[in-house]
């Protein structure tokens, strides 16, 4: 069994940690490459108890990071520690971690109940039936527990994976894109569960490529771009940084010319153009002021606004904002 290592303290000043917080998870100059492909490059950060969002576009390296934290993949360089121990090759640490992977490796011929009981037995729980019932209740699936996994919808499969990650009541919970494929009711239930786990003092890391989802459950975020850490810390502080950059907003209206004329006089507007199809595209450097101004201008001018869509709210644009100071 690998030797324990001293857990990093708050004085380690790892990115992602609030002042005075000691990390449950620590990555120290971690890199991972597959042949000539560098998936993760020199990552250092800490994660404390509570919910942390691991945010990044598809292909950024989020899944690789979670697999290294879980001990399923060895880093090519650097060290990953969980609860003061080396993360890989240590069964006692594995039993303190739950992973809901993005990939689906379920057994279609098992029922949801059988699948969870199988996971409870693998964790050597003394009362696997009790643990199974508890996990089913956490994800609100007791009523479909005896249906075969092969007949589950995407959202149901996501929830049963989360239940399997929680069946042994781990201290650290890792979820890789758990909201993908869920309907609004399922999504709300999972978000509520994620929040409760954090409130209970567990260390929860949830990956996502959807900014609006992350802000619903995580006050702390790690932003990964091209395998590198682009930003870490309080979600609202990072969001404020993003809002300091110019944004483009598309507004559909019944009178685009009059709205464009009204917007151009607004101090928060930098430029306006008619986009066709009853739409105006405006650039603003003050997103919050602009968001307040649009409905007020529409009411004052008697213009009906049908839709307001931020055009650069995609994660690609967000990450460009966060990393532009580091580009040559």
Q: How would you explain this protein's 3D organization?
A:
The protein is an alpha/beta fold. The protein has 2 domains: 230 residues, P-loop containing nucleotide triphosphate hydrolases (Rossmann fold); 83 residues, Alpha-Beta Plaits (2-Layer Sandwich), CATH 3.30.70.100. 34% of the residues lie in helices and 27% in strands. It contains 11 helices and 14 strands. Strands 6-7-8-3-9-10 form a 6-stranded mixed sheet, with helices on both faces. Strands 2-1-4-5 form a 4-stranded antiparallel sheet, with helices on one face. A 4-stranded antiparallel sheet has the order 12-13-11-14, with helices on one face. Helix 3 crosses helix 4 and helix 9 packs across helix 10. The N terminus is likely disordered.
Structural class: alpha/beta
C-alpha Rg (nearest Å): 23 Å
The whole-number mean of residue pLDDT values reads 86
| Proportion of residues in helical segments | 25-40%
Strand order of the largest sheet: 6-7-8-3-9-10
Please tally the helical runs, counting DSSP H or I stretches of 4 or more residues.
11
Strand fraction equals: 25-35%
Question: What spatial form do the alpha-carbon principal axes imply?
Answer: globular
Described by strand count, sense and barrel closure, the largest sheet is: 6 strands, mixed
CATH superfamily of the largest domain: P-loop containing nucleotide triphosphate hydrolases
CATH topology of the largest domain: Rossmann fold
Low-confidence stretches: 1-12
